[in-house]
Amino acid sequence: MRKLAIITTAMLLFATTASALTLAECRRITHISHGGEYGHRDLGEGRVMWTHWWTQEGSYKGYALVECATGEMLSFRAAEENMGPESAFDRTDDVREVLERHQSGSRVFATFERIAADLAFMTRDLAITTETTETCACAAAYPELRGDKTEFVLAG
Asked: Where in the sequence is the signal peptide annotated (predicted)?
């Protein structure tokens, strides 16, 4: 009986470990060969980030940051070409500097509102929204912060 309990416990532990989602698994193509997400990172203290892109009849590169506990998301485009009547731009380096500056300081000051204010004149489609479904990066890095959000399920 004791051996059975040990084997059962070991199998449960292995199954839990084997099924844990990783940030690397969040990399995906969201629109067949035309758009996707990559570079999912744990920024610490319940915050994650990734890059999203699009390349059909124009291209863009943007970023998304999420507070996993609340589902609050800051998203924006840092580079864009041929996506409409506006001129092309690429402020990726400037955006990264702003993000790194906020990340290196105290989180209490690195609110999405402050980050957005610093990015307002160098990005497009800047928005702060609240997600009701858990994101892949939050599921991988902070599953305990899901709360009432719909659980993320990796397709495929």
From this structure: 1-20
Q: How far is CA 145 from CA 10, 32, 74, in A?
A: 26, 31, 18
Alpha-carbon distance values, 61 to 7, 66, 78, 138, 154 (Å): 49, 17, 6, 21, 23
Low-confidence ranges of the chain (pLDDT < 50): 4-18
User: Rounded CA gap, 16 and 11, in Å?
Assistant: 9
Tell how many helices (H) and how many strands (E) occur in the chain.
4, 7
Q: Helices in the chain by DSSP H: which ranges?
A: 2-19, 92-104, 112-119, 136-141
Task: Please choose, from the candidates 53, 76, 49, the residue with its C-alpha nearest in 3D space to the C-alpha of residue 137.
Answer: 49
End-to-end CA distance of the chain: 38
Q: Angle CA(45)–CA(112)–CA(91) in degrees, nearest 5?
A: 110
Q: H helices of 21-148, where?
A: 92-104, 112-119, 136-141
Q: What is the pLDDT of residues 56-90, one digit of tens each?
A: 778 889 999 999 999 999 999 999 987 788 889 99
Q: Coil, helix or strand for 76?
A: strand
